[in-house]
Amino acid sequence: MGMFDSEIVQQEAMQLFQDYQALMQLGNSYGKFDREGKKLYIDQMESIMERYRIFMKRFELSEDFMAQMTMEQLKTQLGQFGMTPQQMFDQMHQTLERMKAEIGPDL
């Protein structure tokens, strides 16, 4: 059975996508959040990024053909921007660190 045939993988992918979309939509109002709201948003974004990193690592380590093709497509798409998957995660992390710095200490 391939990775994409697994109901668990499908559910996890769907939940990750839905959570990310909801957070991105909420992010449109980020500038209106109070300090605590911004902290909560950053925490949630960090959580989703970690879930995404783990999800993608499973694909990277899988011997499943479709998982490998998915990783190659991601690498190709990111390569068009001169970026690797690791650089993408590093950049996301740096963005979140800047957001933390903007709202002050205690994060």
TrEMBL record:
InterPro entries recorded: DUF1825
Domain of life of the native organism: Bacteria
Protein known as: DUF1825 family protein
Organism: Vasconcelosia minhoensis LEGE 07310
Organism lineage string: Bacteria, Bacillati, Cyanobacteriota, Cyanophyceae, Nodosilineales
